[in-house]
């Protein structure tokens, strides 16, 4: 079960919540399709406030493609995947042309 924490600045919270609402609403079928194409059977995100006033988004990818999901979706030419990656890059300040942060190392 790969997991990672992505930073989210406080000024991006409203945009992130709108994006999540889109993924759970109008874009749900496309989101489910993306996950299925990349072998992810469950894709969860948790919002964790930090003491500094920002947030961490804890993301978990389960399924046979979970370990390779980030690399797979980043290299995809599918329109939805490209939109998804661009949204993640904008919201979390991640440069999709540079190496992605490593997945969390489970300790317990």
Please describe the biggest sheet, giving its number of strands, its sense, and whether it closes into a barrel. Answer: 3 strands, antiparallel
Uncertain residue segments:
none
Strand tally, please? 3
Shape by Cα distribution? globular
Map the helices and strands.
Layout: E1 3-8, H1 13-24, H2 28-37, E2 42-49, E3 55-62, H3 69-75, H4 79-92
Antiparallel strand pairs: 1-3, 2-3
Describe the structure.
40% of the residues lie in helices and 20% in strands. With 108 residues, it is an alpha+beta fold. It has one domain (3-92). Strands 1-3-2 form a 3-stranded antiparallel sheet, with no helix packed on it. The radius of gyration is 13 Å and the shape is globular. The two termini are 13 Å apart.
Question: Summarize this, please?
Answer:
This protein has 108 residues and is an alpha+beta fold. Helices cover 40% and strands 20% of the residues. The protein has helices spanning 13-24, 28-37, 69-75, 79-92; strands at residues 3-8, 42-49, 55-62.
What key phrases describe this protein's structure?
three-stranded antiparallel beta sheet; 4 helices; 108 residues; globular; 3 strands; alpha+beta
């Amino acid at each position: 079960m790969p997991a990672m924490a992505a930073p989210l600045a406080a000024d991006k919270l409203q945009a992130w919540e709108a994006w999540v609402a889109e993924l759970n609403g109008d874009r749900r079928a496309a989101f489910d399709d993306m996950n299925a194409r990349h072998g992810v059977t469950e894709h969860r995100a948790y919002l964790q406030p930090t003491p500094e006033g920002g947030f961490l988004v804890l993301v978990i990818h389960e399924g046979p493609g979970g370990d390779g999901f980030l690399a797979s979706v980043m290299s995809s030419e599918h329109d939805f995947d490209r939109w998804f990656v661009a949204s993640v890059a904008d919201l979390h300040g991640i440069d999709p042309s540079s190496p992605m942060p490593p997945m969390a190392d489970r300790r317990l």
